[in-house]
Design a protein that fits this description.
four-stranded mixed beta sheet; seven-stranded mixed beta sheet; Aspartate Aminotransferase, domain 2; 2 domains; about 35% helix; binds pyridoxal-5'-phosphate
Protein backbone atom coordinates (compact mmCIF):
# COMPACT_ATOMS: atom_id res chain seq x y z
CA UNK A 1 0.00 0.00 0.00
CA UNK A 2 1.16 3.53 -0.68
CA UNK A 3 1.29 6.16 2.04
CA UNK A 4 -1.68 7.85 0.40
CA UNK A 5 -3.73 4.65 0.67
CA UNK A 6 -2.72 3.95 4.27
CA UNK A 7 -3.47 7.56 5.18
CA UNK A 8 -7.05 7.09 4.03
CA UNK A 9 -7.53 4.23 6.49
CA UNK A 10 -6.86 6.35 9.55
CA UNK A 11 -6.39 10.06 9.12
CA UNK A 12 -9.09 12.71 9.22
CA UNK A 13 -7.85 15.83 7.41
CA UNK A 14 -8.77 19.46 8.12
CA UNK A 15 -11.45 21.19 6.02
CA UNK A 16 -12.06 17.95 4.10
CA UNK A 17 -15.15 16.11 2.93
CA UNK A 18 -13.51 12.73 2.67
CA UNK A 19 -16.15 11.21 0.43
CA UNK A 20 -15.50 13.62 -2.43
CA UNK A 21 -11.88 14.55 -1.76
CA UNK A 22 -9.24 13.44 -4.28
CA UNK A 23 -6.23 11.37 -3.19
CA UNK A 24 -3.80 13.41 -1.13
CA UNK A 25 -0.16 13.28 -2.24
CA UNK A 26 2.13 12.00 0.52
CA UNK A 27 5.02 14.42 0.95
CA UNK A 28 8.24 12.84 2.15
CA UNK A 29 10.84 15.58 1.72
CA UNK A 30 11.15 19.34 1.55
CA UNK A 31 13.94 21.76 0.76
CA UNK A 32 13.71 25.49 0.14
CA UNK A 33 10.45 26.19 -1.68
CA UNK A 34 10.23 22.60 -2.95
CA UNK A 35 8.42 19.49 -1.72
CA UNK A 36 8.56 15.92 -3.06
CA UNK A 37 5.91 13.22 -2.78
CA UNK A 38 6.37 9.47 -2.40
CA UNK A 39 6.37 9.04 -6.19
CA UNK A 40 9.19 11.52 -6.62
CA UNK A 41 6.94 14.24 -8.00
CA UNK A 42 8.17 17.77 -7.26
CA UNK A 43 5.97 20.64 -6.07
CA UNK A 44 6.64 24.33 -5.60
CA UNK A 45 5.13 25.34 -2.28
CA UNK A 46 3.75 28.71 -3.41
CA UNK A 47 1.74 29.27 -0.21
CA UNK A 48 4.52 28.47 2.28
CA UNK A 49 2.49 25.53 3.63
CA UNK A 50 -0.38 27.70 4.89
CA UNK A 51 1.76 30.79 5.39
CA UNK A 52 4.06 29.33 8.04
CA UNK A 53 7.33 28.86 6.23
CA UNK A 54 9.32 31.96 5.16
CA UNK A 55 12.82 30.46 5.18
CA UNK A 56 12.27 27.26 3.28
CA UNK A 57 11.58 23.67 4.20
CA UNK A 58 14.10 21.79 6.34
CA UNK A 59 15.96 25.03 7.06
CA UNK A 60 19.37 24.09 8.45
CA UNK A 61 19.79 27.11 10.76
CA UNK A 62 16.45 26.56 12.51
CA UNK A 63 16.94 22.78 12.56
CA UNK A 64 20.32 23.20 14.27
CA UNK A 65 18.83 25.55 16.87
CA UNK A 66 16.06 23.03 17.57
CA UNK A 67 18.51 20.11 17.82
CA UNK A 68 20.73 22.04 20.20
CA UNK A 69 17.74 22.96 22.34
CA UNK A 70 16.37 19.40 22.35
CA UNK A 71 19.68 18.12 23.66
CA UNK A 72 19.95 20.89 26.30
CA UNK A 73 16.43 21.42 27.62
CA UNK A 74 13.47 20.14 25.60
CA UNK A 75 10.73 21.40 27.91
CA UNK A 76 10.04 22.73 31.35
CA UNK A 77 6.70 23.85 32.76
CA UNK A 78 6.15 27.61 32.49
CA UNK A 79 3.87 27.76 35.51
CA UNK A 80 6.24 28.56 38.38
CA UNK A 81 9.38 28.45 36.21
CA UNK A 82 11.02 30.33 33.42
CA UNK A 83 13.96 29.47 31.13
CA UNK A 84 16.64 31.17 29.08
CA UNK A 85 14.96 30.82 25.69
CA UNK A 86 11.67 32.40 26.83
CA UNK A 87 13.65 35.33 28.20
CA UNK A 88 15.84 35.67 25.09
CA UNK A 89 12.84 35.45 22.77
CA UNK A 90 10.96 38.06 24.80
CA UNK A 91 13.94 40.42 24.66
CA UNK A 92 14.20 39.87 20.93
CA UNK A 93 10.49 40.44 20.27
CA UNK A 94 10.59 43.65 22.29
CA UNK A 95 13.09 45.03 19.77
CA UNK A 96 10.80 44.35 16.78
CA UNK A 97 7.25 44.77 18.13
CA UNK A 98 5.48 48.15 18.10
CA UNK A 99 6.82 49.86 21.22
CA UNK A 100 3.49 49.97 23.06
CA UNK A 101 3.62 46.16 23.35
CA UNK A 102 5.13 45.28 26.73
CA UNK A 103 3.96 41.80 27.79
CA UNK A 104 3.87 38.41 26.09
CA UNK A 105 1.60 35.42 26.70
CA UNK A 106 2.59 32.12 25.08
CA UNK A 107 0.34 29.44 23.58
CA UNK A 108 0.46 26.90 20.75
CA UNK A 109 -1.40 28.07 17.66
CA UNK A 110 -3.11 31.04 16.06
CA UNK A 111 -6.56 30.20 17.35
CA UNK A 112 -5.40 30.05 20.96
CA UNK A 113 -3.47 33.30 20.52
CA UNK A 114 -6.83 34.82 19.55
CA UNK A 115 -8.67 33.12 22.44
CA UNK A 116 -6.15 34.61 24.86
CA UNK A 117 -6.64 38.11 23.43
CA UNK A 118 -10.44 37.86 23.55
CA UNK A 119 -10.47 36.43 27.07
CA UNK A 120 -8.13 39.18 28.25
CA UNK A 121 -10.34 41.88 26.73
CA UNK A 122 -13.39 40.44 28.49
CA UNK A 123 -11.72 39.73 31.83
CA UNK A 124 -10.01 43.12 31.93
CA UNK A 125 -13.47 44.69 32.04
CA UNK A 126 -14.84 42.06 34.42
CA UNK A 127 -11.96 42.72 36.83
CA UNK A 128 -12.92 46.37 36.88
CA UNK A 129 -16.64 45.67 37.29
CA UNK A 130 -17.42 47.05 33.82
CA UNK A 131 -20.06 45.26 31.76
CA UNK A 132 -18.58 44.95 28.29
CA UNK A 133 -19.19 41.49 26.93
CA UNK A 134 -19.37 41.83 23.17
CA UNK A 135 -16.76 41.84 20.42
CA UNK A 136 -16.58 43.68 17.08
CA UNK A 137 -15.11 41.92 14.04
CA UNK A 138 -15.03 42.26 10.25
CA UNK A 139 -17.28 40.42 7.85
CA UNK A 140 -15.44 37.51 6.22
CA UNK A 141 -12.79 37.58 8.93
CA UNK A 142 -10.90 34.44 9.87
CA UNK A 143 -9.44 34.18 13.35
CA UNK A 144 -9.26 30.42 13.85
CA UNK A 145 -11.39 27.43 14.71
CA UNK A 146 -11.65 27.35 18.51
CA UNK A 147 -14.85 28.80 19.99
CA UNK A 148 -13.84 32.41 20.61
CA UNK A 149 -11.85 32.59 17.40
CA UNK A 150 -14.71 30.97 15.51
CA UNK A 151 -17.22 33.43 16.96
CA UNK A 152 -15.07 36.27 15.65
CA UNK A 153 -14.75 34.68 12.23
CA UNK A 154 -17.23 35.69 9.57
CA UNK A 155 -16.86 32.99 6.94
CA UNK A 156 -20.22 31.43 7.68
CA UNK A 157 -19.86 27.84 6.53
CA UNK A 158 -16.92 27.42 8.90
CA UNK A 159 -19.07 28.37 11.87
CA UNK A 160 -22.75 27.85 10.98
CA UNK A 161 -23.18 24.62 12.93
CA UNK A 162 -22.14 26.35 16.15
CA UNK A 163 -24.07 29.59 15.79
CA UNK A 164 -26.09 29.13 18.94
CA UNK A 165 -23.09 28.41 21.15
CA UNK A 166 -20.91 31.40 20.37
CA UNK A 167 -19.76 34.56 22.06
CA UNK A 168 -21.67 37.66 20.97
CA UNK A 169 -19.85 39.22 18.03
CA UNK A 170 -21.16 42.00 15.82
CA UNK A 171 -19.69 42.28 12.35
CA UNK A 172 -18.92 45.39 10.36
CA UNK A 173 -18.12 45.74 6.64
CA UNK A 174 -14.48 45.48 5.57
CA UNK A 175 -13.19 48.97 4.62
CA UNK A 176 -12.00 47.96 1.16
CA UNK A 177 -11.72 50.64 -1.51
CA UNK A 178 -15.02 52.51 -1.63
CA UNK A 179 -16.41 50.97 1.58
CA UNK A 180 -14.40 53.04 4.04
CA UNK A 181 -17.18 55.38 5.17
CA UNK A 182 -19.71 52.59 5.57
CA UNK A 183 -17.28 50.62 7.69
CA UNK A 184 -16.24 53.59 9.80
CA UNK A 185 -19.86 54.54 10.43
CA UNK A 186 -20.74 50.98 11.48
CA UNK A 187 -17.84 50.98 13.91
CA UNK A 188 -18.83 54.37 15.30
CA UNK A 189 -22.36 53.14 15.97
CA UNK A 190 -21.09 50.11 17.86
CA UNK A 191 -18.36 51.71 19.96
CA UNK A 192 -20.82 54.39 21.08
CA UNK A 193 -22.95 51.77 22.87
CA UNK A 194 -20.31 50.98 25.54
CA UNK A 195 -21.13 47.28 25.21
CA UNK A 196 -18.01 46.20 23.37
CA UNK A 197 -14.78 45.01 24.96
CA UNK A 198 -12.73 44.74 21.80
CA UNK A 199 -12.46 45.09 18.05
CA UNK A 200 -10.49 42.27 16.41
CA UNK A 201 -9.17 42.44 12.83
CA UNK A 202 -6.63 41.03 10.44
CA UNK A 203 -4.58 44.16 9.76
CA UNK A 204 -4.42 45.27 6.09
CA UNK A 205 -5.03 41.82 4.62
CA UNK A 206 -7.70 39.20 5.37
CA UNK A 207 -5.95 35.96 4.53
CA UNK A 208 -8.58 33.24 4.50
CA UNK A 209 -11.13 35.54 2.84
CA UNK A 210 -8.82 35.50 -0.19
CA UNK A 211 -6.20 38.12 0.63
CA UNK A 212 -8.77 40.91 0.81
CA UNK A 213 -6.88 44.16 1.37
CA UNK A 214 -7.64 47.58 2.84
CA UNK A 215 -5.55 50.63 3.63
CA UNK A 216 -3.50 51.43 6.73
CA UNK A 217 -5.02 54.90 6.65
CA UNK A 218 -8.55 53.65 7.30
CA UNK A 219 -7.41 51.13 9.91
CA UNK A 220 -5.59 53.94 11.71
CA UNK A 221 -8.86 55.86 11.92
CA UNK A 222 -10.70 52.81 13.21
CA UNK A 223 -8.12 52.14 15.92
CA UNK A 224 -8.25 55.77 17.00
CA UNK A 225 -12.04 55.60 17.18
CA UNK A 226 -11.76 52.53 19.44
CA UNK A 227 -9.18 54.24 21.65
CA UNK A 228 -11.45 57.27 22.11
CA UNK A 229 -14.27 54.95 23.16
CA UNK A 230 -12.27 52.59 25.40
CA UNK A 231 -12.63 49.58 23.15
CA UNK A 232 -9.48 47.45 22.95
CA UNK A 233 -8.05 46.73 19.52
CA UNK A 234 -6.66 43.29 18.68
CA UNK A 235 -4.47 42.95 15.59
CA UNK A 236 -4.57 39.31 14.55
CA UNK A 237 -1.17 39.16 12.85
CA UNK A 238 -1.12 35.37 12.74
CA UNK A 239 -0.91 35.50 8.93
CA UNK A 240 0.56 38.98 8.35
CA UNK A 241 3.38 38.78 10.90
CA UNK A 242 7.10 38.39 10.25
CA UNK A 243 7.57 40.15 6.94
CA UNK A 244 4.65 39.05 4.76
CA UNK A 245 3.35 42.57 4.17
CA UNK A 246 6.82 43.96 3.42
CA UNK A 247 7.32 45.17 6.98
CA UNK A 248 7.92 43.04 10.06
CA UNK A 249 4.29 43.43 11.13
CA UNK A 250 1.31 44.91 9.27
CA UNK A 251 0.89 47.09 12.36
CA UNK A 252 4.18 48.76 11.42
CA UNK A 253 2.23 50.61 8.71
CA UNK A 254 0.00 52.17 11.40
CA UNK A 255 0.42 55.36 13.42
CA UNK A 256 -2.06 54.13 16.03
CA UNK A 257 -0.85 50.81 17.38
CA UNK A 258 -3.21 48.04 18.48
CA UNK A 259 -3.54 47.15 22.19
CA UNK A 260 -2.95 43.46 21.54
CA UNK A 261 -1.34 41.40 18.81
CA UNK A 262 -1.68 37.71 17.97
CA UNK A 263 1.33 35.95 16.49
CA UNK A 264 1.83 32.40 15.24
CA UNK A 265 2.32 30.75 11.80
CA UNK A 266 5.76 32.13 10.72
CA UNK A 267 6.84 32.73 14.34
CA UNK A 268 8.98 29.57 14.39
CA UNK A 269 9.72 29.53 10.67
CA UNK A 270 7.12 26.81 10.16
CA UNK A 271 8.77 24.28 12.47
CA UNK A 272 7.32 24.02 15.99
CA UNK A 273 3.67 24.95 16.73
CA UNK A 274 3.78 28.06 18.87
CA UNK A 275 1.88 31.32 19.35
CA UNK A 276 2.20 34.51 21.33
CA UNK A 277 -0.34 37.15 22.30
CA UNK A 278 1.24 40.51 23.08
CA UNK A 279 -0.18 43.25 25.31
CA UNK A 280 0.21 46.84 26.43
CA UNK A 281 1.21 47.50 30.02
CA UNK A 282 -2.30 48.87 30.64
CA UNK A 283 -3.91 45.53 29.88
CA UNK A 284 -1.42 43.65 32.03
CA UNK A 285 -2.08 46.10 34.86
CA UNK A 286 -5.79 45.23 34.72
CA UNK A 287 -4.87 41.78 36.05
CA UNK A 288 -2.12 42.88 38.43
CA UNK A 289 -2.85 43.27 42.15
CA UNK A 290 -3.26 41.51 45.47
CA UNK A 291 -6.41 39.67 44.43
CA UNK A 292 -5.59 36.17 43.12
CA UNK A 293 -8.98 35.97 41.42
CA UNK A 294 -8.02 38.83 39.14
CA UNK A 295 -5.14 36.85 37.60
CA UNK A 296 -5.46 35.44 34.10
CA UNK A 297 -6.27 31.76 34.72
CA UNK A 298 -5.37 30.47 31.32
CA UNK A 299 -2.54 28.23 30.21
CA UNK A 300 -1.52 25.42 27.92
CA UNK A 301 0.71 22.52 28.88
CA UNK A 302 3.33 23.39 26.28
CA UNK A 303 3.27 27.12 27.03
CA UNK A 304 6.59 28.76 26.07
CA UNK A 305 8.08 25.40 25.09
CA UNK A 306 11.87 25.98 25.02
CA UNK A 307 12.27 24.17 21.69
CA UNK A 308 9.63 26.42 20.13
CA UNK A 309 11.27 29.49 21.64
CA UNK A 310 14.69 28.42 20.27
CA UNK A 311 13.14 27.95 16.83
CA UNK A 312 11.50 31.39 17.06
CA UNK A 313 14.77 33.08 18.04
CA UNK A 314 16.60 31.45 15.10
CA UNK A 315 13.71 32.37 12.83
CA UNK A 316 13.65 36.05 13.82
CA UNK A 317 17.43 36.18 13.38
CA UNK A 318 16.93 34.88 9.84
CA UNK A 319 14.20 37.45 9.18
CA UNK A 320 16.58 40.22 10.17
CA UNK A 321 19.34 39.24 7.74
CA UNK A 322 19.99 41.51 4.76
CA UNK A 323 19.46 38.51 2.51
CA UNK A 324 15.91 37.89 3.74
CA UNK A 325 15.01 41.56 3.49
CA UNK A 326 16.38 41.59 -0.07
CA UNK A 327 14.28 38.52 -0.89
CA UNK A 328 11.10 40.17 0.40
CA UNK A 329 11.76 43.22 -1.79
CA UNK A 330 12.63 41.00 -4.75
CA UNK A 331 9.40 38.99 -4.47
CA UNK A 332 7.34 42.16 -4.04
CA UNK A 333 8.86 43.69 -7.20
CA UNK A 334 8.36 40.47 -9.10
CA UNK A 335 4.67 40.40 -8.05
CA UNK A 336 4.23 44.02 -9.14
CA UNK A 337 5.72 43.21 -12.56
CA UNK A 338 3.45 40.19 -12.95
CA UNK A 339 0.47 42.28 -11.82
CA UNK A 340 1.13 44.86 -14.56
CA UNK A 341 1.07 42.11 -17.12
CA UNK A 342 -1.84 39.99 -15.88
CA UNK A 343 -4.29 42.70 -14.82
CA UNK A 344 -5.08 43.50 -18.44
CA UNK A 345 -6.14 39.93 -19.14
CA UNK A 346 -9.83 39.87 -20.15
CA UNK A 347 -10.60 37.10 -17.65
CA UNK A 348 -9.00 38.93 -14.71
CA UNK A 349 -11.34 41.04 -12.58
CA UNK A 350 -8.88 42.57 -10.09
CA UNK A 351 -5.38 42.09 -8.77
CA UNK A 352 -3.66 43.19 -5.55
CA UNK A 353 -0.19 43.05 -4.05
CA UNK A 354 1.10 43.67 -0.54
CA UNK A 355 4.64 42.61 0.38
CA UNK A 356 5.10 39.01 -0.73
CA UNK A 357 1.34 38.54 -1.11
CA UNK A 358 -0.18 38.53 -4.59
CA UNK A 359 -3.86 37.89 -5.35
CA UNK A 360 -6.02 37.96 -8.45
CA UNK A 361 -9.75 37.47 -8.92
CA UNK A 362 -10.97 35.66 -11.99
CA UNK A 363 -14.11 37.08 -13.63
CA UNK A 364 -17.11 34.84 -13.07
CA UNK A 365 -20.74 34.82 -14.13
CA UNK A 366 -21.95 33.72 -10.73
CA UNK A 367 -20.74 34.05 -7.16
CA UNK A 368 -18.11 31.35 -6.68
CA UNK A 369 -18.29 29.54 -3.37
CA UNK A 370 -15.23 29.03 -1.17
CA UNK A 371 -14.83 25.36 -2.04
CA UNK A 372 -16.86 25.48 -5.28
CA UNK A 373 -16.33 23.91 -8.71
CA UNK A 374 -14.04 26.62 -10.04
CA UNK A 375 -11.89 26.43 -6.95
CA UNK A 376 -11.54 22.66 -7.24
CA UNK A 377 -10.75 22.83 -10.95
CA UNK A 378 -8.05 25.43 -10.33
CA UNK A 379 -6.64 23.57 -7.34
CA UNK A 380 -6.38 20.30 -9.24
CA UNK A 381 -4.80 22.03 -12.23
CA UNK A 382 -2.10 23.55 -10.03
CA UNK A 383 -1.38 20.24 -8.28
CA UNK A 384 -1.13 18.43 -11.64
CA UNK A 385 1.39 21.06 -12.68
CA UNK A 386 3.42 20.68 -9.50
CA UNK A 387 2.37 23.97 -7.89
CA UNK A 388 0.79 24.18 -4.45
CA UNK A 389 -1.77 26.97 -4.51
CA UNK A 390 -5.11 26.91 -2.68
CA UNK A 391 -7.53 29.23 -4.47
CA UNK A 392 -10.43 30.66 -2.49
CA UNK A 393 -13.46 30.51 -4.77
CA UNK A 394 -12.36 32.51 -7.83
CA UNK A 395 -9.40 34.10 -6.03
CA UNK A 396 -5.91 32.79 -6.72
CA UNK A 397 -3.21 34.02 -4.39
CA UNK A 398 0.52 33.47 -3.94
CA UNK A 399 2.28 33.72 -0.59
CA UNK A 400 5.62 32.05 -1.18
CA UNK A 401 8.51 31.30 1.16
CA UNK A 402 10.97 34.19 0.97
CA UNK A 403 13.61 31.80 -0.36
CA UNK A 404 11.64 31.00 -3.53
CA UNK A 405 13.91 31.52 -6.57
CA UNK A 406 13.06 33.75 -9.53
CA UNK A 407 12.82 30.69 -11.75
CA UNK A 408 10.37 29.00 -9.37
CA UNK A 409 8.33 32.18 -9.11
CA UNK A 410 8.21 32.49 -12.92
CA UNK A 411 6.88 28.93 -13.08
CA UNK A 412 4.14 29.83 -10.58
CA UNK A 413 3.12 32.90 -12.63
CA UNK A 414 3.22 30.95 -15.87
CA UNK A 415 1.03 28.19 -14.41
CA UNK A 416 -1.47 30.78 -13.13
CA UNK A 417 -1.64 32.25 -16.65
CA UNK A 418 -2.28 28.80 -18.07
CA UNK A 419 -4.95 28.16 -15.42
CA UNK A 420 -6.77 31.36 -16.35
CA UNK A 421 -6.78 30.25 -19.98
CA UNK A 422 -8.02 26.79 -19.01
CA UNK A 423 -10.88 27.93 -16.77
C1 LIG B 1 -4.42 30.75 10.42
C2 LIG B 1 -4.99 31.88 11.16
C3 LIG B 1 -5.48 31.74 12.47
C4 LIG B 1 -5.55 30.42 13.15
O1 LIG B 1 -4.31 29.87 13.40
P1 LIG B 1 -4.19 28.30 13.70
O2 LIG B 1 -2.75 28.11 14.03
O3 LIG B 1 -4.60 27.60 12.44
O4 LIG B 1 -5.09 28.00 14.83
C5 LIG B 1 -5.93 32.86 13.11
N1 LIG B 1 -5.90 34.06 12.53
C6 LIG B 1 -5.45 34.24 11.28
C7 LIG B 1 -5.43 35.61 10.69
C8 LIG B 1 -4.98 33.16 10.55
O5 LIG B 1 -4.55 33.33 9.30
Amino acid sequence: MTLTEKDKLYNWHPYTQHKTAPDFPAIIKGEGALLWDENGKEYIDAIASWWVNPFGHSNKVIADAIYKQLTTLEHVLFGGFTHDKAVLLAEKLMTILPNNQKKLFYSDNGSTAVEVALKCALQYNYNKGIKKTKIIAFEDAFHGDTFGAMASSGITFFTEAFKGSLLEVVRIPVPTNGNEEKSLQALQNLVATNEFAAFIFEPLCQGAAGMVMYSAEILDKMILMCKHNNVFTIADEVMTGFGKTGRTFASDYLDNKPDMMCLSKALTGGTIPMAITTFTQEIFNGFYGDDTNKAFFHGHTFTANPTGCAAAIASINLLQTAETQKNITRINQSHLDFEQKIKLHPKVKTTRVLGVIFALEIKTETQESYYGTMRNKLYNFFIENGIILRPVGNIVYILPPYVITDTQLEKVYYTIEKAIEMI
